[in-house]
Amino acid sequence: MTTAEIAAWRARMPAAFGSSGRTRALRIAGWLAFALWLGWALQHFGFTPQRLWNGLSGLATILRLMVPPSPGELWVDILQGLAESVAMAFLGTFVAAVIAVPLGFLGAGNVMTNLLFRFSLRRVFDGFRGIDQLIWALAFVRAVGLGPLAGVLAIATADIAVLAKLNAEAIENAERRQQEGVTAAGGSRLARLRFGVLPQVLPVMLAQALYFFESNTRSAAILGVVGAGGIGLQISERIRVRHWDEVAFIILLMVVTVAAIDFLSARLRRRLTGGG
Amino acid sequence: MDAAPAWAEHVPAWMSGNRMLELQGLTRQFGTTLAVDHVNLEVPDGQMVGIIGRSGAGKSTLLRLINRLEAPSSGRILSGGRDVTALDGRALRDWRRDCAMVFQQFNLVQRLDVLTNVLIGRLAYQRGWRSFMVLVGARFTAAERAMALAALDRFGLADTALQRAETLSGGQQQRVAICRALMQQPRLILADEPIASLDPRNAQVVMDALRDVNRQDGLTVLVNLHHLDTAREYCDRIVAMQAGKVVFDGTPAALTAERVRAIYGISEEEFAAEAAARLRADAAPARLAMA
Which InterPro entries match (chain A) (predicted)? Predict the structure, then answer.
């Protein structure tokens, strides 16, 4: 390769020889701007090494207090709280899943042909999805009082919209040929949905509900902190009086419970969505 | 096949008219293309008609028009003198029951068991309270279940009744689809490339089954085929289509190799190879897209 040849290629395809000076300058400026913003944000939130260090030593103290974990004297209460959390998650998910089935059909383009209705419904789903479970829990604690009912309602309300949207998508993705088989045999619109669509989407819907149950057992713990029932209350009380060993015990118990539910639900979901 | 099943004796009054099907200037337009272009056709009761043509000739659209899965752009479909072109609601569903479809991809509900798939053929017979029970809990009557089992037994499939449809081979699924069609107690069977997705042995089993319902049960059969030999072997009459038009209508003997070359400009072997390749290409990406 002679220098002339190299120059010729460079002239013909400059981008193949690295980016131009201008692009490089812009890129550097972009990174600089990001670094400046990051620095400002960290400083604004009080992200100093000293505070981090103090925080870490605080955390170490807590961890030390946690060993060995102990059930304390009120371990029956702990077990009850845990069972309550799981029950809340199950009931909340169940209610949401049941309501989300008809809503899913109403939101699916191949079922509900009225575009305006469907569009509005989908926007309502989106609106509900924007509000977190915890906010619902706070609202329901005021509305129906302290206790697990508020938790169940919070879980259900927060999940209905998401499940309905997922159901609607599953229904829209249902294979057309199988539905056509029902229509061609003289089946009505409802018969097409019942025999042509439902068998295709029901396993998907169940699998989604199970997945939500899994994640809700995790988040049901937090609902107790705001008074919506379950194990969260036990945790927050023990943190307030610094019984860290008991907190550790509860956390371990929760991890085991969630892992067990994850395991079972994952197996069930595989059976539902796998061909067998 | 010693005894014909009980429902074969059920011969409704409309069958007395011998013009099972009459198409008058039937046309279907997609955009600017005429998929079916002014087709006139008369099919007498009990005939087995093979419809042949290259891909895109409009064979499939023609059958879908008759079952009203597609709406005609113009023209009329008459059956026993009755106009079925503009039916809707209950009357349309009853018409669809009367002209059962058999599809290339079988169109069974994969996750339902074979028995329920066959019972889908009874949907259009449910009235009032019964149709509610069927919709809510698939509560078909014992008589209907026995009828479905007898239909499956006729094609050697009674043992698979409680399996999911997806566990069956293509040939078995197509026979289940024929059972579903028979459960409709139809006057007419419209088979759209019923053997295009099957291996030669299963193709023969399915074609034999169609001939059997034509001969034994006296049903009129319209079958789309891409294999001329199959059409000649099984059909009383062959209708050839090209670019949406009927270009040949006669006995199998009249459709000689020279005739085929004159109509399509290619030899029979080229015709078959082209059709087979096109069907394979059509079927594969469709399945992917649905997955």
Answer: MetI-like, MetI-like_sf, PhnE/PtxC
Contact (Cβ atoms closer than 8 angstroms) between residue B34 and residue B27: yes
Whether residue B2 is contained in a domain is answered as no
B148 domain-assigned: yes
pLDDT at residue A159 in the model: 93
pLDDT range class, residue B282, cuts 50, 70, 90? low
| Chain A residues lying within 8 Å of B134, measured CB to CB | 191
In this predicted model, which residue has the larger pLDDT, B278 or B98?
B98
* A77-273 topology per CATH: MetI-like fold (1.10.3720)
- Per residue in A22-55, is it b (16+ CB within 10 Å) or e — as a string? eeeeeeeeeeeeeeeeeeeeeeeeeeeeeeeeee
Question: Please, which residues have CB within 8 angstroms of residue A131's CB and are 6 or more apart in sequence?
Answer: A158
CATH of the domain at B204: 3.40.50.300
Residue B190, domain extent? 19-290
Q: Where are the domains of chain A?
A: 77-273
Q: Which whole-number Å values give the CA distances from A185 to A30, B124, B146, B185, in the listed order?
A: 63, 7, 19, 10
ipTM: 0.85
- Helix %, strand %, coil % of chain B (to 5): 50, 25, 30
Q: Is B132 part of a structural domain of the chain?
A: yes
A176, A184, A196: residue with CB nearest B109: A196
Which chain B positions have a beta carbon within 8 Å of A177's beta carbon?
103, 105, 107, 290
Per-residue pLDDT reduced to its tens digit, B33-59: 999 999 999 999 999 999 998 888 899
pLDDT tens, position by position, B64-118: 999 999 999 999 999 988 899 989 899 999 999 999 999 999 999 999 999 999 9
Give the nearest partner residue to B123 out of A177, A187, A275, using CB atoms: A187
* Residue showing tokens 């029951």: B97
Residues 81 through 140 of chain B touching chain A, CB cutoff 8 Å: 93-97, 100-101, 103, 105-112, 116, 120-121, 123-124, 131, 134-135, 138
Could you give the number of structural domains in chain B?
A: 1
User: Which residue ranges in chain A fall short of pLDDT 70?
Assistant: 274-276
